[in-house]
Amino acid sequence: MSLFDWLRAKPTCVLDATLQQRVAALPTAQPWQTCSLREQRWVVLDLETSGLNLNKDEVLSIGAVVIEDGAVDFSQQFERTLLREQPRLGASVLIHGLGPEAIAAGQAPAHALLDFMTFVGDSPLLAFHAPFDEHMLTRALKASLGYTLQHPFIDVAALAPMLCPDAALREAGLDDWTAHFGLQVGERHHASADALVTAELAMLLFSRARRQGLDSPCALVEKVSQWRRRQQTQAF
């Protein structure tokens, strides 16, 4: 089996010919670029899930917005609720409010996820607590489409303390950072709304990154990697 065949391994459900063609036509993710942060198209993602179990819970909804030319492009937004016939609904439903009726009226997961990856294109992804979103999205794509996610992520939850060391906020949540910067938040705990708030926070952080001489995705990712290694060393 070739590497390409392995990356496009068969999903747990059978895809029709049209879906197979669309999966095969998805663009290849690009490595981190040396262009300016402003020139890079970013997709800011938020997921609502049935719970926090990385191996058992499911993606229930996807919200995303695009940062392009240094601003949120409101003409490029994505929102889907995924159909789940027997959803695992834990305490998280009290936060995001996605009950059985909303989930039963959702779009088939294969179609929703394929629409999302078409929306993403070859762009990198931003999320707050990105490792969780990356893991859950990877599982969902593999199960529904047989597709292995290759798109790189930046964790906004790591960017914030790295770029704002004087903020005295560690292990802080999205609400903590939005309050720190005085961002006006109209709605929270809804995938699209949380994606927009994360995008607004990211743009503030990109401005700080530029002032610190970090004006390319490649430079920013390298700095985050160095910062994480220092944090791990200090923890011991």
From TrEMBL:
GO terms for molecular function: 3'-5' exonuclease activity; nucleic acid binding. It comes from the Bacteria. One of its GO terms (biological process) is DNA metabolic process. GO terms for cellular component: cytosol. It comes from Pseudomonas rhizosphaerae. Residues 41-211 form the Exonuclease domain. Pfam families: RNase_T. Keywords: Exonuclease, Hydrolase, Nuclease. Signal peptide: none annotated. This is DNA polymerase III subunit epsilon.
